[in-house]
Amino acid sequence: MDDAEYAAARRELVDGLRRRLDVDERTLAAIESVPRHAFVPERHRSHAYADRPLPIGHDQTISAPHMVAVMTDLLDVEAGDRVFEVGTGCGYHAAVVAEIVGPGNVYSVEYVPELADSARELLRRLGYDVTVRAGDGRTAFPDEPPFDAAYLTCAPVGGVPDQIVDRVRTGGRVVAPVGQVGSQRLVRLTVEEDGVDREDHGGVRFVPMQ
Ligand code: SAH
């Protein structure tokens, strides 16, 4: 496939998402802008614009586009907001969020060093100014001031660790899959002065958080 064919497939994917999901046009525009095929391994590239997860090596997967759309929408961020991602994977989701918040505003941490390295390099090559570190989401970016929002692309079993929630300013949001594989829920937390407000957004399937 050439670039024009990929772009056509991407448009078709976004049209399908628009019919099926109740998400903002801004979110859909971000999905339409990011070349997902560049983030998936060569042998899966012909399926890059099918709405399904794909393997990216190291036993990890890139989420299905509808899941990226739903999570990005729930994050409810705008240009200039600073966002913390736990689980860079191949970098696709970070690129989608970067389309909305703009250069220099996405900070992402990835547990597998090889994935962190390749995502950092690919994002740079595609022109996304995203800060990628290898490490554990619980302790990453200790010197950054509070973020406007955070999301996890891996599922902590016992709820979002306090160390991550504590990195988000009052009024900010945390979107995450939580629970054991087989019974995970997608949740959105809103950080309040004296705790968090928790919304449930249905059953999901993500890799476990290390
Ligand atoms: N957003 C990614 C999907 C990544 S899959 C994309 O668009 O490709 C989830 C990722 O979370 C995996 O790469 C996994 O290695 C990473 N992960 C698991 N536990 C982690 C932890 N404690 N800290 C940081 N990353 C973690």
UniProtKB/TrEMBL annotation:
Its EC number is 2.1.1.77. Gene3D superfamilies: Vaccinia Virus protein VP39. One of its GO terms (cellular component) is cytoplasm. The keyword Chloroplast does not apply. GO terms for biological process: methylation; protein repair. Keywords: Cytoplasm, Methyltransferase, S-adenosyl-L-methionine, Transferase. It catalyses: [protein]-L-isoaspartate + S-adenosyl-L-methionine = [protein]-L-isoaspartate alpha-methyl ester + S-adenosyl-L-homocysteine. It is found in: Cytoplasm. Signal peptide: none annotated. The keyword RNA-binding does not apply. Pfam families: PCMT. GO terms for molecular function: protein-L-isoaspartate (D-aspartate) O-methyltransferase activity. It comes from the Archaea. Catalyzes the methyl esterification of L-isoaspartyl residues in peptides and proteins that result from spontaneous decomposition of normal L-aspartyl and L-asparaginyl residues. It plays a role in the repair and/or degradation of damaged proteins. Belongs to the methyltransferase superfamily. L-isoaspartyl/D-aspartyl protein methyltransferase family. NCBIfam families: pimt, PRK00312.1. This is Protein-L-isoaspartate O-methyltransferase. It comes from Halorubrum kocurii JCM 14978. The lineage of its organism: Archaea, Methanobacteriati, Methanobacteriota, Stenosarchaea group, Halobacteria.
